[in-house]
């Protein structure tokens, strides 16, 4: 049976019913294996959070950390980590599962911090109250900080038996969330007077997608640099779609407040380039992703499927703009 790519990002919008489908899925042959991948991610996250929130951890901090991680969103980033590792011939699940959990914890930490009043000032995340609106700002800051530290602790514990992979994973993930072009740098671009939207998006959003696929490659024992371009393209497509939602969607559709980029004077591709240009760029980005797929099991099918699905990244009402 041909291995099909099933990772999807449901951005939950009637305006943009966008699915990043067939881009780097788990390379699984059947539904059972897809479900097994999701279970691996949740089990790894539960183990990490249970370990870090055990006594004598302050009980409210423990509750807030758990609230920030569960239930999660689509778990797109850790799914990509597992997918790439599988494609690269992963032999030891422990390293991959730890890396995937760490990636998701860092993503959750970024959301907690991003929602704070000093940044997006959002009281809603994933359709429920954001961490700071429920537990207060001081605890929200600590939740984000704790998740960042625990992410690296998880990598250290799960890859301790393989020093080479441990070192490479620490460097890879650090680059994805730190400086000069990780999440921290991406957030910092919002404080600059002049902002390059593309560089901003590559850092704030694309960097963790790059980290996701790169961590999977490292866990699978191959050169992560070969997968970096694909991570960048997936990240760019995801951010363009998110910008479109923020500019034209509703809070009910998104599960969070909209028009925040305009309200907070933050870069947004739709506001910066216009709807027509942004839509064309979104479609072209998916096509570009097909051109940078590394040689791997099923890579020919992957390229074909990415091209065939490219039009699904463009809402029907705007399809003429992306032609």
CATH architecture verdict: Orthogonal Bundle
Structure class: mainly alpha
Count of runs of 4 or more consecutive helical residues: 15
Task: Using the CA coordinates, give the radius of gyration.
Answer: 19 Å
Number of beta strands: 2
Count up the domains: 1
Which regions contain 5 or more consecutive residues with pLDDT less than 50?
Answer: 1-30, 309-316
Helix share bin? 55-70%
Q: If you had to describe this structure to a student in words, what would you say it looks like?
A:
It is a single chain. The chain has 323 residues and is mostly helical. The chain has one domain: Farnesyl Diphosphate Synthase (Orthogonal Bundle), CATH 1.10.600.10. It contains 15 helices and 2 strands. A two-stranded antiparallel ribbon has the order 1-2. Helix 3 (76-87) runs antiparallel to helix 4 (93-114), helix 3 (76-87) crosses helix 9 (197-219) and helix 4 packs parallel to helix 7 (163-177). The radius of gyration is 19 Å and the shape is globular. Mean pLDDT is 79; it is low at 1-30 and 309-316.
Secondary-structure blueprint:
Elements (H helix, E strand, L loop, with lengths): L30 H22 L6 H11 L6 H12 L5 H22 L9 E2 L2 E2 L1 H5 L1 H22 L4 H15 L5 H6 L8 H23 L8 H21 L2 H4 L5 H4 L5 H5 L1 H17 L7 H11 L14
Helix pairs in contact: 1-4, 2-6, 3-4, 3-9, 4-6, 4-7, 4-9, 7-9, 9-10, 10-14, 14-15
């Amino acid at each position: 049976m041909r291995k099909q790519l099933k990772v999807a990002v449901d951005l939950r919008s009637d305006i943009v019913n966008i699915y990043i489908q067939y881009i780097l899925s788990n390379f699984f042959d059947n539904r059972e294996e897809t479900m097994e991948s999701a279970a691996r991610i949740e089990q790894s996250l539960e183990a990490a959070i249970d370990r870090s929130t055990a006594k004598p951890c302050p009980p409210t901090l423990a509750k807030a950390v758990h609230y920030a991680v569960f239930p999660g969103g689509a778990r797109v980033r850790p799914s990509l980590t597992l997918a790439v590792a599988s494609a690269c011939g992963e032999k030891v699940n422990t390293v991959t599962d730890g890396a995937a959990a760490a990636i998701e914890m860092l993503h959750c930490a970024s959301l907690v911090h991003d929602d704070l009043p000093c940044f997006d000032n959002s009281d809603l995340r994933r359709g429920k109250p954001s961490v700071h609106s429920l537990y207060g700002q001081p605890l929200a800051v600590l939740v984000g900080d704790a998740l960042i530290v625990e992410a690296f602790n998880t990598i250290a514990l799960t890859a301790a038996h393989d020093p080479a992979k441990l070192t490479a994973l620490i460097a890879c993930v650090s680059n994805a969330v730190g400086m000069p072009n990780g999440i921290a740098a991406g957030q910092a671009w919002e404080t600059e007077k002049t902002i390059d939207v593309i560089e901003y998006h590559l850092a704030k959003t694309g960097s963790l997608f790059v980290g996701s696929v790169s961590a999977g490659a490292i866990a699978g024992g191959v050169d992560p640099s070969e997968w970096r371009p694909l991570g960048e393209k997936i990240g760019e497509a995801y951010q363009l779609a998110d910008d479109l939602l923020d500019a034209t969607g509703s809070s009910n559709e998104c599960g969070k407040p909209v028009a925040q980029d305009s309200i907070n004077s933050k870069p947004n591709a739709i506001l910066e380039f216009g709807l027509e240009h942004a839509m064309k760029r979104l479609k072209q980005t998916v096509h570009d992703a097909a051109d940078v797929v590394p040689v791997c099991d099923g890579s020919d099918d992957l390229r074909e499927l990415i091209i065939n699905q490219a039009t699904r990244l463009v809402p029907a009402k705007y399809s003429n703009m992306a032609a």
